[in-house]
Design brief:
This protein is of the alpha+beta class. About 45% of the residues lie in helices and about 15% in strands. The protein has a five-stranded mixed β-sheet with strand order 3-2-1-5-8. A five-stranded mixed β-sheet has the order 4-10-9-6-7. The two termini are about 50 Å apart. It binds copper (II) ion.
Length: about 350
C-alpha cells in the first residue's frame, strides 16, 4: 500500500514538473524569447556546470576510495585467487586511464564548444582513418584481455584427476543453510538422492550404500588443509544457491538435480590471514550469493584453513554418517516423542518408491 502511494506521488510529481516547465515555456514565448534557441546566459551557465560536474564526480570517486577502500577484500587466500587478482589488476590498469581521459574530454568538449551563434561547426561525412582507429584499438585491447581471461578460466576450471593429491568436499545448499560432507576413510562419497531426505538425513544419503557409512558431514564450520588441492562438489535441495568463498576468489552455482564442481588450493591459514589483515576476529566464510529466499542473508558457514596435521585431527573427531544414524535410532527408541526422526522402516519404504 505504501509502495503504491509512493508510486502515485512520483507520477503526480512528474506531471506537476512538466506543467511548470510548459508554463515557463509559454511565458518565454509571450516575452518574445525563442524557447527552442536557449538564451546565451543559460547556455553559458549550463556549459560551466560541465567541468564542475566532472570535478565533483571524480572527487566523489576519490572520496569513496578513501572512505571505503579498507572494506575491499584482503589478498587472495588461494593459488588461483592470486592469478585472478592479477587479471583484475591488469584490467584496471588498462581501463582506468581510458576512463579518466575519455571523461575529461567528454566534459571539456561540452564546455568548450557550448553553443555560440558566431561559430560554425566543421562538417565532414565520413573518415575511414577515424573509423579504423576507434574500432581497431578497443577491439585489440579487448581481445587481449578476453584471451588472457579465457586461458586463466581454462586453467582454474580444469578438474583435478585421480592422480592429484587432493581432498574432496561436497557442499550442500538448501533454504537456508549449508552442510559440508567429507567422503571419509574410503575416499568415496555415498550415493545421495533427494528422495531419501528424511528426518535428520537432510542430505538424502543412501544408508544402504557401503561408501556412505564413513561419510562425515558438518554444519557450523568446515576445515581445509593449507597448500593442498580441494575438489568441491556442489548440490542443492530446493532452489538455486551459489557457493561463494570470496577470500579464495571462488564461486559456483548450486543447482537442484545436478552436481557442479570447482577446485582450489588454499595457500594461507586462518591464523596467517589474521596476521595479514591485522584483524584478530578474521574468519573465512562460505556465503550464499543467490537471493534464494527470505533468510538468504543468513546462509553462511565458517571455513577454517589449518595445517594438514590439524585438519586430519579435526576430521578424525567428526562422527561418521552411520554412527550418527545409529545414535539417532537408539535415541528414538528410548524417547518415542522424537517422532520426526524416522527409523530404518521409513528408509526402506523410501527405497521401494525409488525402485
Ligand atoms: Cu541460498
Amino acid at each position: 500500500m505504501t509502495d503504491l502511494l509512493i508510486l502515485l506521488g512520483v507520477v503526480l510529481g512528474i506531471i506537476a514538473i512538466s506543467k511548470v516547465v510548459s508554463v515557463l515555456d509559454m511565458v518565454a514565448t509571450a516575452k518574445g524569447e525563442n524557447s527552442y534557441m536557449p538564451n546565451a546566459r543559460e547556455n553559458r551557465f549550463q556549459a560551466r556546470l560541465m567541468p564542475v560536474f566532472l570535478i565533483v564526480y571524480f572527487a566523489f570517486i576519490a572520496w569513496q576510495l578513501v572512505a571505503w577502500g579498507d572494506r575491499m577484500l584482503p589478498v587472495a587466500a588461494s593459488e588461483h585467487g592470486e592469478i585472478v587478482d592479477n587479471l583484475m589488476d591488469i584490467t584496471w590498469i588498462v581501463i582506468t586511464p581510458v576512463f579518466v581521459i575519455t571523461h575529461i574530454l567528454l566534459f571539456y568538449f561540452a564546455w568548450k564548444y557550448a553553443y555560440d551563434k558566431n561559430r560554425k561547426a566543421t562538417y565532414f561525412s565520413h573518415s575511414n582513418k577515424l573509423e579504423i582507429l576507434w574500432t581497431a584499438i578497443p577491439a585489440t585491447v579487448l581481445l587481449v584481455l578476453i584471451l588472457y581471461g579465457l586461458s586463466i578460466w581454462n586453467d582454474i576450471t580444469t578438474p583435478l584427476t585421480a592422480e592429484d593429491d587432493k581432498i574432496e568436499i561436497e557442499l550442500y545448499a538448501r533454504q537456508f543453510d549449508w552442510t559440508a560432507r567429507y567422503p571419509g576413510e574410503d575416499g568415496k562419497f555415498g550415493e545421495a538422492s533427494v528422495r531419501l531426505i528424511e528426518g535428520v538425513n537432510m542430505l538424502g544419503i543412501d544408508s544402504t550404500d557401503v561408501n556412505a557409512a564413513d561419510d562425515k558431514y558438518v554444519k557450523a564450520e568446515f576445515y581445509l588443509p593449507v597448500n593442498k588441492d580441494v575438489q568441491f562438489y556442489f548440490r542443492a535441495q530446493d532452489v538455486i544457491h551459489s557457493a561463494y568463498m570470496p577470500h579464495f576468489r571462488a564461486q559456483m552455482n548450486c543447482v537442484p538435480g545436478m552436481t557442479t564442481r570447482f577446485q582450489f588450493k588454499p595457500n594461507k591459514t586462518t591464523a596467517e590471514m589474521k596476521e595479514i589483515t591485522g584483524d584478530e576476529d578474521f574468519e573465512y566464510y562460505l556465503l550464499c550469493n543467490k537471493i534464494c529466499g527470505a533468510a538468504h542473508y543468513n546462509m553462511k558457514m565458517e571455513i577454517k584453513v589449518v595445517s594438514e596435521e590439524d585438519y586430519n585431527k579435526w576430521l578424525s573427531e567428526q562422527k561418521e554418517f552411520l554412527a550418527v544414524e545409529e545414535s539417532i535410532e537408539t535415541n528414538s527408541e528410548e524417547s518415542p516423542q522424537m517422532d520426526t526422526i524416522q527409523t530404518k522402516v521409513g528408509e526402506s519404504t523410501q527405497l521401494s518408491v525409488l525402485n
